[in-house]
Amino acid sequence: MYAQLFTFCRFAMYFSVIFVRIIRLKIKKRMETITSLYDFFTECGQVTTDSRNCPEGSMFIALKGGNFNGNAFAEQALQKGCRYAVVDEPEYAQKDDPRILLVEDCLKALQELANYYRRQLGTRIIGITGTNGKTTTKELIATVLGRKYNVLYTQGNLNNHIGVPLTLLRLKPEHEIAVVEMGASHPGEIHMLTHIVEPDYGIITNVGKAHLEGFGSFEGVIRTKGELYDYLRSRKNSSVFIQNENPYLNQIAEGLNCIRYGQTEGLYVSGHVLKCSPFLAFAWIGEKGLHEVQTHLIGTYNLDNVLAAAAIGRFFGVEEEEISLALSSYIPQNNRSQLEETPNNHLIVDAYNANPTSMMAALENFRHVEAAHKMVILGDMKELGSSSKEEHAKIVDFLDTCNFEKVILVGPEFGCIQTSYEKYPDVDTLIDHLKSDCPIGFYILVKGSNSMKLSRLPEFL
């Protein structure tokens, strides 16, 4: 019996050693693949995943989507000027063409290449996430830091598992700081993105009720956004920039070096609203005293965003006068709280995104805007799951307290709510109505999720 047990143990030890060696070989092989891919990337200097956009000498990485297979366009990308094409299906690498590089998984290769490249450069990176305001805050931070540094920052809304690595691969040795936006609609996404980006510093703008269908609950939102804090706890000498009055962020920031900003006196940066009619004017206090700034941002809810940028600018040694100049010069784009004047009306267009938190903030701000005739056009808030009807009803209840002269609701979610306000099933139906009955002389707030396409309305108002 003992002899059999001894023989079994010997075989078990033998196979465990073999297993460990196989695992080590796989890891080594994968790392060799990424280092080899990195060598090819350095020849190219840039990456594309779109065969319709192939800069001369770039590297094409064939990604897959629900309705396309990038492998099928690899040869086309080479013909259009790419130096190399990376594929993950052997049939597209059968030709004896040294320009076609085969990997196990193109998306994984893109992410690992971005992480490896980020490590080679060692650029200081600020990671930013949050429910609302992260894109505006990212651009404000980049504008402020740009007064002293060569800054790379996320373009547009490229903040997902593809956009983040593409942002990192735009880094150049001359970039001194990068501001990388990270978005999420499901648990674990920020965890995954932080391990690609490996940020040195972080900021969560806020947490709110968005993507509840994916997160499952508001608590799920907090946990997922907090994955940025979780990552930074593992890094030495890291810091987070935190809105001092936010109870949810303070609850999950334990053990972190917190640089605080907000409306409380005595913070690293503190400030308050001077006026908002409709553009935000605010005052902030740093090390050198009080600064008053007139911005091109609409809404008192942008106070946190400008104070965050001021705090980060001060932390990185930007002169306080330069911080104020940067904040006063920034002009928002992409349908985020833009003021538009038409021959008939003044419009506040905030049609890029909408969730219960941002919708309520926009309405609260608009009710305080001084105007003789005020009107709101609201589109559905998407991805709220089982909470959708309740959250849309809350918005309608709040509208009842605002005394706006006219209210128009667009979409099937608002359509389910019992109310006397005008309702339209979609933007096309509303446009048909506006063509024959356009309001005149109003201040109009236009807000809804991007998929509602309310950004089409200004030309009919």
Automatic annotation (TrEMBL):
Belongs to the MurCDEF family. MurF subfamily. Gene3D superfamilies: Mur ligase, C-terminal domain, Mur-like, catalytic domain, MurE/MurF, N-terminal domain. Keywords: ATP-binding, Cell cycle, Cell division, Cell shape, Cell wall biogenesis/degradation, Cytoplasm, Ligase, Nucleotide-binding, Peptidoglycan synthesis. The keyword Cell wall biogenesis/degradation applies. ATP binds at residues 130-136. HAMAP family: MurF. GO terms for cellular component: cytoplasm. It is an enzyme of class 6 (ligase). This is UDP-N-acetylmuramoyl-tripeptide--D-alanyl-D-alanine ligase. One of its GO terms (biological process) is cell wall organization. Its EC number is 6.3.2.10. GO terms for molecular function: ATP binding; UDP-N-acetylmuramoyl-tripeptide-D-alanyl-D-alanine ligase activity; UDP-N-acetylmuramoylalanyl-D-glutamyl-2,6-diaminopimelate-D-alanyl-D-alanine ligase activity. Pathway: Cell wall biogenesis; peptidoglycan biosynthesis. Residues 47-117 form the Mur ligase N-terminal catalytic domain. Involved in cell wall formation. Catalyzes the final step in the synthesis of UDP-N-acetylmuramoyl-pentapeptide, the precursor of murein. Residues 128-312 form the Mur ligase central domain.
